[in-house]
Amino acid sequence: MIVQCPNCKTKYNLDDSRVKDEVRLRCTRCKNIFKLSDQDQEKITDDFAIKWRTEERTKEPSRSDTSFDDVSVFLARRKKIRRWIIALAAAVIIALGVYFVLPMLDNGMTIPFISTQEEKVEITQQNEFTEKDVRDISLENIRQYFVNNDKIGQLFVVEGQAVNNFSEPKSMIKLRASLYDIGGTVLVEKDFLCGNVASLFQLQVSSEEELESTLQSRLGILTTNRLVEPGGYTPFMVVFYNPPEEMQEFGLEVIEAHDPTP
User: What angle do CA 199, 202, 208 make, to 5 degrees?
Assistant: First the structure.
């Protein structure tokens, strides 16, 4: 039997065995409640039933059939997924940049926004320096200590700051660190550029090659030691690996301080 909602005219095909006059029906589309006894219903032929079912299947769904809650949940999930994808892509790009760019700097390859400045500094380098050229570079906040390294053994570390007391900027400040025995004889010497320091954790677990790569990194040198303004400073650190047992004292001296290109 075909039953039609008197409110929205939606038709339903009900089993005849379940149809009774006192039965109340609720329309799934407009939610109207009605009795079968309120209208004249008629049985239909198989051809008409087939035609009606076909029309119902091809009918465009009503807006009221759509759950707004489901739609909002779907949109929120899609927005969240999109944010995660963007964040992941940004993290990958940053990681790739760090992985490829830093080794290029340490290996001396040219990066446009850095290489130009580096070339300018190299043009002004001197071959010889007198006491007058370096006398106003003071070494401050110096401290020395021993560190036990898991891979190397004992390290003797000296760190501090090279302060520019000249009235003009200085560049590529270089120091010499020396270890002496009780008689003042030099046991070991190291010349190094300021600009890099290693963390305590790196000192404890890194290999000698890894530590030297950190302390000689061109990125740190070009960042903090390329242009040291008057009154400014650049940090420094030097590491001696398994220093001689007869070591009694150490010394530091400034051996180079270049004038940067104007």
Answer: 125
> pLDDT digit string (tens) for 110-167?
444 444 444 444 434 566 788 888 999 999 999 999 999 999 999 999 999 999 999 9
Tell me what pLDDT residue 3 has.
77
37 φ/ψ angles, rounded to the nearest 5 degrees: -70, -10
* pTM (predicted TM-score): 0.54
**Does the 125-258 domain belong in CATH 3.30.499?**
no
* Cβ-contact 156, 136 below 8 angstroms: no
- Taken in order 39, 43, 46, 48, the sign of the CA dihedral is negative
What is the percent of the chain with per-residue pLDDT over 90, rounded to a whole number?
Answer: 47
Q: Kindly list the domain boundaries of the chain, sorted by start residue.
A: 2-65, 68-109, 125-258
- List, for residues 20-60, the tens digit of each pLDDT value: 666 777 788 887 877 766 655 444 344 444 444 545 545 55
Cα–Cα distance measured from residue 185 to residue 183, given in angstroms and rounded to the nearest whole number: 6
Over the chain, what HEC string results? Answer: CEEECCCCCCEEECCHHHCCCCCEEECCCCCCEEEHHHCCCCCCCHHHHHHHHHHHHHCCCCHHHCCHHHHHHHHHHHHHHHHHHHHHHHHHHHHHHHHHHHHHHHCCCCCHHHHHHHHHHHHCCCCCCCHHHHCCEEEEEEEEEEEEECCCEEEEEEEEEEEECCCCCEEEEEEEEEEECCCCCEEEEEEEECCCCCCHHHHHHCCHHHHHHHHCCHHHHHHHCCCECCCCEEEEEEEEECCCCCCCEEEEEEEEEECCCC
